[in-house]
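hey so u asked for the seq, here:
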Amino acid sequence: MERMITAVEELKRIESQAEKEYRKVLKRLKDPGYSDLRNLILRLAIDTVFHRHLMEALEKAYHDVAKLVEEYGGEEGGEEIALIPGVPTIAMPLGFGRIGGRVPPEEIIEEYLRDFPSEVVLPEDDGKVGELLKRYLELTEEMLELYEELSRRAFHPVVRELAREIKRNEEQHETILRNLKRKYGAAHSAGA
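ran it, C-alpha cells below
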C-alpha cells in the first residue's frame, strides 16, 4: 500500500505544480486577442484543480485505510496485500493481476457469500448487529441515489466517472449487506 501512497503523493505534488504554472500563463493572457488560448489553458487548469483535489482525497483515504488495516486487520507475515473494495475481508496478493472492471468482480462476491457460514455466531447483543446492518443498508440505499444524481449532474467527466464507479461499489455493498442482514436476521431469530 505504501507504493500507492507514494505515487498519489507524487501526483498531488505534480498537479499542484502544474496548477501554479497554468495560473502564471493565465495571468499573462489577459488581452482579448488571447481568448481562445486562455480558454483552452483555463480548461486545463480546471482539470488540474480537480485532479489535485482528488489526489489529496486519495492520499487521506489511503492513510486512513492503512490505519484501519493496522488496527483491525493487520498485515500478517509482513506480506504486502491489496485490499479489494466492497468486500473488506477479501485480501488478494498484489501479484493477483487484473481482476476486472468492477472491483471485486461479481464472481468473487458471489463465491464469498456462497461460502459464508450458514450458522453465524453472534455476540449476545439483543439484535443490535441486525439493527446496525439494517441502518447501514438504509445509508447505502441513500448513497446510491445521491451518487446516481451526482453522476448525472457532474459537469466534469472525471467527477462523473468517479461517481459512477463509487455507485457501482455501493451496489456491491448493498448486495453484501442484504445477504448479511438475511443471515444475521435468521441467526438472531433462531436464537430467540
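Residues 1-74 form one domain. The first strand starts at residue 81 and ends at 83.
lmk if thats what u needed
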